[in-house]
Design goal:
- With 81 residues, the chain is an all-alpha fold.
- It has one domain.
- Helices cover 75% and strands 0% of the residues.
- It contains five helices and no strands.
- Helix 1 crosses helix 4 and helix 3 packs antiparallel against helix 4.
- It starts with a helix and ends with a helix.
């Protein structure tokens, strides 16, 4: 389990990288998997500061594109491009 300060730091970093709107539109299971993935990255790296933005984005992409795609996020691609 993450320390509250580490959870806050990684959450803020994820919002910066992925975007609050995109995170809100993820399904609950997708958000849960993203939380688990980010916790594992922190455990591996030692702190939220050590996790790169690219690693966060990579975990997000793996989850929504390959592990648990639901289609709820695809319309965002049109808005973002």
């Amino acid at each position: 389990m993450l320390e509250p300060i580490e959870y806050k730091k990684i959450s803020e970093k994820a919002v910066k990288v992925i975007g609050a709107k995109v995170i809100r539109l993820m399904s609950s299971p997708q958000r849960g998997l993203l939380n688990i993935a980010l916790e594992r990255l922190i455990a591996k790296r030692g702190s939220a500061e050590s996790v790169s933005e690219y690693e966060i984005l990579g975990q997000y992409e793996q989850i929504v594109d390959f592990v648990l795609p639901t289609g709820t996020h695809e319309h965002l691609l049109d808005e973002l491009t």
